[in-house]
């Protein structure tokens, strides 16, 4: 796979044989992929943490109770001291990366403040950490059949229950991921 083919706005679906516990049974939205590498956010690993805990750490006064009950995700094993917000295109913020016409990634505090006051994007996911690949690494993993990929949709990213995202993403390709053997074979 050449870096001429960007995986930006693709969902990576971990194959059952992927042994890295950081990525077992995950779905990762690739937010940026270029000659320097790739950055993605795992979208199906909620932590035992709600936004209320994050709001408290950031000293947000009087947060919106609906937002406060939303889960925080483990976005990946890299940069776990940083927050990342995937959201719809209804708002613009500082340090926002356009992933697609419908999905944005923001790395600045202003999006958290907007979510906390109830003035944030209609749809959003807050994650701690990200998944990162060095130049050529993701391409090698794709060639090694570690991942399936499918175009991201706002429905899969924001609306599908977390526990169903791995299966739903694979089913969008017509694949029952549960029926795939974790043992790789070679013809």
Summarize the structure.
With 187 residues, the protein is an alpha+beta fold. Helix content is 21%, strand content 32%.
Largest sheet, in brief, is: 10 strands, mixed
Enumerate how many helices there are, as a single number. 6
In which range does the helix fraction lie? Answer: 10-25%
Q: H/E element string?
A: EEEEHHEEEEHEHEHH
Shape from CA axes?
Answer: globular
Q: Please tell me how large the radius of gyration is.
A: 17 Å
Spatial separation of the terminal alpha carbons: 20 Å
Polypeptide structure, described:
This protein is an alpha+beta fold and about 190 residues long. Helix content is about 20%, strand content about 30%. The protein has 6 helices and 10 strands. Strands 1, 2, 3, 4, 5, 6, 7, 8, 9 and 10 form a 10-stranded mixed β-sheet that branches. A hairpin with a 2-residue loop joins strand 2 (about 25-35) and strand 3 (about 35-40). The longest helix has 8 residues, at about 110-115. The chain starts with 9 loop residues before the first strand and ends in a 16-residue tail after the last helix. The model has no long low-confidence stretch (mean pLDDT about 90).
């Amino acid at each position: 796979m050449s870096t001429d083919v960007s995986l930006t706005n693709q969902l990576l679906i971990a194959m059952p044989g992927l042994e890295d516990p950081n990525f077992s049974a995950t779905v990762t939205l690739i937010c940026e992929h270029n000659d320097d590498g790739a950055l993605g956010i795992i979208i199906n690993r909620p932590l035992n943490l709600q936004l209320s805990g994050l709001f408290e750490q950031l000293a947000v006064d009087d947060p919106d109770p609906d937002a406060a009950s939303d889960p925080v995700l483990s976005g990946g094993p890299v940069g776990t001291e940083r927050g990342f917000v995937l959201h719809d295109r209804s708002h613009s913020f500082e340090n926002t990366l356009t992933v697609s016409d419908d999905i944005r990634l923001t790395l600045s505090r202003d999006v958290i403040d907007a979510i906390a006051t109830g003035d944030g994007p209609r749809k959003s996911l807050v994650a701690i950490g990200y998944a990162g690949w060095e130049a050529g690494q993701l391409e090698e993993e794709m060639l090694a059949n570690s991942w399936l990929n499918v175009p991201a949709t706002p429905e899969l990213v924001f609306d599908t229950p977390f526990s169903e995202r791995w299966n739903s993403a694979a089913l969008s390709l017509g694949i029952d991921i549960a029926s795939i053997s974790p043992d790789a074979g070679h013809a």
